[in-house]
Design a protein that fits this description.
Number of strands of chain A: 17
Order of helices and strands of chain A: EHHEEEEEEHEHEHEEEEEHEHEHEH
CATH superfamily of the largest domain in chain B: NAD(P)-binding Rossmann-like Domain
Oligomer: heterodimer
CATH superfamily of the largest domain in chain A: NAD(P)-binding Rossmann-like Domain
CATH class of the largest domain in chain A: Alpha Beta
Distance between the termini of chain A: 24 Å
CATH topology of the largest domain in chain A: Rossmann fold
Number of strands of chain B: 17
CATH class of the largest domain in chain B: Alpha Beta
CATH topology of the largest domain in chain B: Rossmann fold
Radius of gyration of chain B: 20 Å
CATH architecture of the largest domain in chain A: 3-Layer(aba) Sandwich
Shape of chain B: globular
Largest interface: A-B, 83 and 90 residues
Shape of chain A: globular
Number of domains of chain B: 2
Distance between the termini of chain B: 24 Å
Order of helices and strands of chain B: EHHEEEEEEHEHEHEEEHEEHEHEHE
Largest sheet of chain A: 9 strands, mixed
Helix content of chain B: 25-40%
Chain lengths: 376, 365
């Protein structure tokens, strides 16, 4: 049987401990070791977009486009291949009073989205599972940042600051707790109710004090590590927030301000800039607006963190011992998570699949439906 | 509900005429920029079995006028065998005898996942249809005799497609296994009430024919240039030609080329696929598995876009040897044909239904 695994199924195995943080971090680490050894191929991310027909457009939605994003990769050690498909109608909104522009998306109706992972056994080519990508997506980003922290943060780093209080921030708190002996978490997000809920829930989950702070500049006080889990279009980490010995990580390319670069001693990239290219194929190119669907899937890498003497190398080089993580207690370093890759999905979805299968909780469809006797 | 369509469903719904019409519209859309697709991308990785390689391949595209977008996904274990001196690529998924190829179809206007379709039957139709479309534009009007290399599903869909565009009344076929080629000849003779002969010698396939189709999975050339007669039109599924074929073809029609990514003209490619591979020998994977496909180039290539706009002629005399090939528009095929199958399935009430909410979520990344 091929499993159809929902976000609720993945959450359940996380809650019961059947899918544990150590397995997640180990899987992601193994995949970067494979990558360093040339055993984890992945293809550049792609987006293919098609304008929504005029007859189906919504008033006030700018440049509505169907955007189909894919990334895939395989990890030889674990024997999993995964492709992640992300597909939504993407559009720009502008607040009529403030003029603030945001990028929005939906699948079928506002509030629902579509992100799927097809997991395959790379030793037999058998389709194992189709997963909603929501939680796996958070875990793969968080696990990657936590893995970087394992190599780059000070060994005694005990205070973690998190910008953001959504699902991504929760995954970061749980996984960072595994790689460093956390004794406190500080959190800031713009909505008081959200950050306070995060603080109370994570305090209970992790059994350490979690403080919600009132303003962004208060967050870094006393922090050894700061990770950004926001969808902000503006920089979050400003130069004056930086103290000696800190480790930084982020989920987008612009959360750490370019102006902060002078205060950062060393940068490790998730992937080389050459392999970070996103290929965007579009129909009706004359209709691509500056606020439209194309822009968000093609952020150029920040020049301040992608080249120059402070850039040490990549995460794969780091975990395989080719470059150092930290050279002194006072060093300020930054893991620049410049773009994701398909091997992260192969690693995390593989672990989630095993746990969900053991728990026997997923939907099933006969694998026969997905295989065929006709050869091409 | 999201529809699941098995090959048996597709078989009762899809006709070659539907396929040719859907593809012709899609290719015209590529010419105007209304259809978009990207080149095929493959990932290859060694498996526990040193003889086996895992290969994943995808292609995708869509159009707002058609209203559909599709990704086609192939998941195969690849290995090689030799039979009668011919090296053949073999594959399976899950276990020998099974294969995995899926099309996922979406609604461009609201991103709804509409259908998951086994692509085996559709795949043969769309490849056959390309030979039909190419022959429609390039073969002699009076072409009626077909020489066929191969006797599998592709050989069947090619004949079906060619009969839509030319009055084919005789087929001569060769494939390495006598039993297969004879079964093919018997089957098509009866099905179409035409003359069909199985040949023991591949060099005789091209003799006295108007159209030659290469429909094999050989890993080396099967069509030799010296065999081709004046006036012939040639199609192929893998490019299994010796170098003389490239010399002898006067003009080749290319149905289209996938556009370059936005802002990255250096990523434009005419290649039929881009492969990312891991493991030993990864760097020369193109040479080991597909290198033969890039050996030759035709001297004169005409794009369908230019032919349709009458900027360039196709065949200019009945003595010319012509050729046609799809180019790298695979991604523009599956939304077009998949959409046609989906509409037919909905109209006929065919297929199994899966809850669409299985594919949706409330987590935005």
């Amino acid at each position: 049987m091929t499993l159809v695994i929902s976000n609720e199924h993945v959450q359940r195995v996380l809650d019961t401990g059947a899918l544990g943080a150590p397995a997640i971090i180990d899987a992601i680490e193994a995949s970067y070791r494979d990558l360093a050894a040339g055993n984890a191929p992945y293809a550049p991310r792609r987006g293919v977009s098609v304008p929504v027909a005029d007859s189906h457009r919504h008033a006030g939605f700018r440049d509505e486009r169907f955007v189909f994003g894919t990334m895939e990769g395989a990890v030889q050690t674990t024997g999993y291949f995964a492709i992640r498909l992300k597909l939504d109608v993407s559009y720009g909104l502008e607040d009529p009073t403030t003029g603030a522009k945001t990028h929005e998306k939906y699948c079928m109706e506002p509030g629902t989205y579509c992100g799927l992972i097809l997991l395959v056994d790379a030793n037999t080519a058998e389709p194992l599972a189709l997963l909603n990508d929501g939680i796996v997506q958070h875990l793969r980003v968080a696990a990657t940042n936590a893995l970087a922290a394992r190599y780059m943060a000070n060994p005694e780093a005990g205070v973690l600051g998190i910008y953001g209080s959504g699902g991504m921030a929760r995954s970061h708190a749980s996984l960072f707790a595994l790689v460093r002996p956390l004794r406190e978490i500080r959190v800031y997000s713009p909505t008081r109710a959200h950050r306070e809920l995060f603080a109370s829930e994570m305090e209970e989950e992790l059994g350490i004090p979690v403080h919600a702070v009132e303003s962004p500049e208060l967050l870094p006080d006393g922090c050894d590590m700061v990770t950004c889990c926001t969808d902000s279009n503006l920089s979050v980490v400003l130069p004056e927030f930086i103290r000696p010995g800190m480790f930084f990580s982020s989920v987008t390319g612009h959360e750490v301000a370019d102006e902060a670069a002078d205060r950062i001693d060393a940068v490790v990239l998730h992937q080389t800039i050459e392999s970070s290219t996103i290929l965007t194929y579009a129909a009706g190119e004359d209709r691509i607006g500056p606020d439209g669907g194309i822009v968000p899937i093609a952020h150029p890498p920040a020049a301040a963190y992608s080249r120059g003497p402070r850039v040490r190398g990549t995460l794969a080089q780091l975990v395989s011992g080719q470059i150092p993580g930290r050279t002194s207690e006072g060093e300020v370093n930054y893991f620049y998570n410049n773009i994701g890759s398909g091997i992260q999905f192969a690693a995390i979805a593989g672990e989630a699949y095993q746990a969900v299968r053991r728990a026997g909780i997923a939907h099933e469809i006969p694998t026969d439906w997905l295989t065929q006797k006709i050869r091409d | 509900m999201t529809l699941f369509l098995h090959n048996d469903d597709v078989r009762q719904l899809l006709t070659m005429q539907m396929t040719i019409d859907a593809l012709d519209r899609s290719y015209r859309g590529i010419a105007t920029g209304e259809t978009v697709c990207r080149p095929r991308i493959d990932i290859e990785i060694p498996t526990h079995n040193p003889e086996h390689t895992y290969r994943w391949g995808t292609m995708e595209g869509g159009s707002s006028a058609a209203g559909y977008f599709a990704i086609r996904m192939k998941s195969d274990i690849i290995y090689y065998t030799e039979y009668a001196g011919v090296r053949t690529e073999e594959k399976f998924a899950s276990r020998p005898g099974l294969f995995c190829g899926l099309v996922m179809l979406f609604d461009v206007q609201n991103a709804e996942p509409l259908a998951i379709i086994n692509e085996g039957y559709l795949q043969h139709f769309r490849v056959g249809a390309d030979a039909g479309i190419g022959s429609r534009y390039m073969a002699r009007e009076d072409a009626h005799v077909l020489g066929m290399f191969g006797s599998g599903g592709m050989a069947r869909s090619h004949l079906e497609a060619l009969r839509q565009v030319r009055p084919i009344d005789r087929v001569q076929v060769f494939s390495p296994t006598r039993e297969h080629r004879e079964a093919y000849a018997r089957e098509v003779a009866e099905k179409y009430d035409i003359d069909a002969v199985a040949l023991d010698d591949p060099s005789e396939v091209c003799r006295g024919v108007d159209i030659v189709c290469e429909c094999t999975d050989a890993a080396q050339p099967v069509v030799m240039g010296r065999w081709l007669e004046p006036g012939t039109h040639v199609t192929n599924i893998g490019g299994h030609f010796d170098s003389e074929v490239y010399d002898r073809v006067d003009v080749s029609l290319r149905l289209g080329t996938a556009p370059a990514p936005v802002g990255l003209p250096e990523w434009a490619t005419e290649r039929s696929s881009i492969t990312y591979a891991a493991g030993p020998g990864a760097t020369d994977v193109e040479q080991t598995t597909k290198g033969h496909r890039r050996d030759g180039r035709f001297e004169k290539v005409v794009a369908l876009e230019d032919l349709l706009a009458e900027r360039e002629p196709g065949r200019t005399s009945s003595a010319q040897i012509t050729h046609s090939t799809r180019g790298n528009l695979q991604g523009a095929q599956f939304f077009a044909v998949g959409g046609a199958v989906y509409e037919a399935a909905r109209a006929a009430g065919v297929g199994r239904e899966l809850p669409t909410e299985w594919f949706l979520q409330d987590i935005r990344d």
